[in-house]
């Protein structure tokens, strides 16, 4: 019997799976849910551990990722400052990132996360070439 994989579902990157597995039980469940949802909504993205954290890229440009911080699991969108989403916290002025922190899996609102991931495809700043441009960010989409 051949197993049929649902559309838009790819296996989780092994490095990301190992990263998630290394977390405490509560944070592991958050990380697993985030990775699963990002993989489902960005099937064309490349995922890998980048600067020691899971990150998803479109055409070499970082789009979304998460990391463990004192405040919880930080989900970050590199161009999130332009999403127009009140739930995302915009920290810096120089870059266009925005993020949200989770401390329990029940805090993840899938409809919000899926909407943010759709916006991440549509709204992108060129982080891939930021070094070449000496810190200057240009809008791609």
Task: Write the topology of this structure.
Layout: H1 14-21, H2 25-41, E1 46-50, E2 53-58, E3 61-69, E4 72-77, E5 98-102, H3 110-122
Antiparallel strand pairs: 1-2, 2-3, 3-4, 4-5
Helix pairs in contact: 1-2
Question: How would you describe this structure to a colleague?
Answer:
With 141 residues, this protein is an alpha+beta fold. The chain has a single domain, classed as Aspartate Aminotransferase, domain 1, CATH 3.90.1150.200. The protein contains 3 helices and 5 strands. The chain has helices at residues 14-21, 25-41, 110-122; strands at 46-50, 53-58, 61-69, 72-77, 98-102. It has a 5-stranded antiparallel β-sheet, covered by helices on one side. Strand 2 (53-58) and strand 3 (61-69) form a beta hairpin. Helix 1 packs antiparallel against helix 2. The longest helix has 17 residues, at 25-41. It is globular, with a radius of gyration of 15 Å. Residues 1-8 have low confidence and may be disordered.
